[in-house]
Amino acid sequence: MLSVSEAEAIIFNLVQPLNNQYDTEIVDLFAADSRILASVVTSQLDFPYWDNSAMDGYAVRYADVQQATQQQPVILEIIEEIPAGYQPQSTIQQGQAARIFTGAVMPKGADTIIMQEHTQREKNRVFILTAPTKPQEFVRQRATYYQAGTQLLPSGIMLHGSEIAVLATAQCTQISVYRRPRVAIFSTGNELVPPDQPLQPGQIVDSNQYALAALVRQSGGEPLILGIVPDEPGVLEKAIAYAVSNADIVISSGGVSVGDYDYVEQIVKYLDGKIHIQAVAMKPGKPLTVATFRNQVIYFGLPGNPASALVTFWRFVQPTIKKLSGLVEGWQPKFIKALTRQELRSDEKRETYFWGKLDLQNGIYKFQPASGNQSSGNLINLAQTNALAVLSVGQTLVSPGEEVQVLLY
Ligand code: AMP
Ligand code: MG
Questions:
Q1: Residue 253: CB within 6 Å of ligand 1?
Q2: Assigned domain for 330 exists
Q3: Ligand 1 pocket test: which of 185, 199, 253 has the largest number of ligand atoms within 8 Å of its C-beta?
Q4: How many CB atoms lie under 10 A from the CB of residue 408?
Q5: According to the model, what pLDDT value does residue 295 have?
Q6: CATH number, domain at 399?
Q7: Is residue 171 part of a domain?
């Protein structure tokens, strides 16, 4: 059986990121949040656009005021007032100053700003009470933050508020982003019914499809929801064939164990899917099946037990969606070290995952396993968790206060 790290290497190797020419769409700035930039952004503008003042105060010539003190102020004549958004009209000559406000354009001749707090105004004269510490003080010079024509943002990054601010500043309003990966989702099982249907004896509500749709969206994918498929080879064949022709990634749950009604692997093979993984030494999640179709569509046959389906999603599917979506950095699973608040025990034969809550206390990450049964069939205590603690093969016990690896979701 493959180890988790072997399985991970195989899966991440199968992922071909979306193409930066064909797999893109244009969105406007208000729709750009959490999208992934598909091309390098440059701007023809410098930042700042113009030399401007960083303070409310006076634009002066450094040479005029470098000796100014409280006892011997330098007195300058105010020849212009320059609010933000206004083009200065005059040139500051020796002995002159302009009243200026934050963000306003520097007038010609001036090279330094004296902040208002270091001055005293008397009609059209200003007393400079403190010398600036250096020439150019409080001047934001054109192009000091960015020079026109150079790279402003690289492609393959996820856009959030700060990147969107940069795009707006550069007057890029139509943004080329990768389309969202299409992820087909269906559940298999004769016992399954949708949540809005009364339960007959022996039936089980299909929760996986709903959970997976939410997680796919959260990972940046576009879910294609295909419903419940019974454990009948003919119907399953049609569902899988439809899914692989309409998606970049297919996720099914159930039907991958060794039971008599577990047909997924058989049908995948029948449809010329290439099986890469049939089982992984992990708990929960052992029956995970991974295949590819036509070397491009990745098929995840997740185990049906709700906790197994979600743990294998977080561990393998989420990074796959993110890598496929064009994200260059940060698509990998994120592990950190935390101290467990309660003991964690494993049978040491398989890598074991415990769901729980990670929080930061006095600068130290602490992990609290969910109370109650950590069994693959228990989906109730998965709610309100945010992390999985991992015990590697051979690790049987982590005692309270000891360190453990934790995967964030
Ligand atoms: P399977 O992997 O098909 O053997 O299913 C294992 C267990 O998970 C069984 O108890 C199923 O009833 C349950 N199960 C399978 N699919 C789902 C689903 N979509 N939602 C909730 N439970 C499921
Ligand atoms: Mg089943």
A1: yes
A2: no
A3: 253
A4: 14
A5: 84
A6: 2.40.340.10
A7: yes
Express each pLDDT in 230-252 by its tens digit: 999 999 999 999 999 999 999 99
Could you tell me the residue range of the domain that residue 358 belongs to? Answer: 335-408
Model pLDDT, residue 348: 82
Tokens for 365, please give them: 């990450």
pTM for this predicted structure: 0.94
Q: Which helix (H) or strand (E) holds 208?
A: helix 208-218
Beta bridge partners of 321: none
| Whether residue 163 sits in one domain with residue 235 | no
> How does strand 182-188 pair with strand 249-253?
parallel
Residue 185's nearest CA partner among 218, 209, 217, 220 is 209
Q: Which residues contact 220 (CB under 8 A, 6 or more apart)?
A: 34, 36, 158, 180, 181, 321, 322, 325, 327
Answer yes or no: are the C-beta atoms of 342 and 401 closer than 8 Å.
no
Which token pair is 251?
A: 């996720």
| Rg value, the chain, Cα | 31
3-class DSSP state of 204: strand
Q: Is 211 in the pocket of ligand 1 (CB under 6 A)?
A: no
Boundary (domain end) residue, out of 90, 114, 140: 140
Q: Which of 205, 219, 157, 171 is nearest to 20 (CA)?
A: 157
- Same domain for 121 and 111: yes
* 353 backbone dihedrals φ, ψ, rounded to 5°: -110, 130
From 190, 193, 203, 204, mutation site for ligand 1 pocket: most ligand atoms within 8 A of C-beta: 204
Domain count, the chain: 4
pLDDT tens per residue across span 138-187: 999 999 999 999 999 999 999 999 999 999 999 999 999 999 999 999 99
Range 204-218 average pLDDT = 98
DSSP letter string, 17-41: PPPTTTSEEEEEGGG-TT-BB-S-E
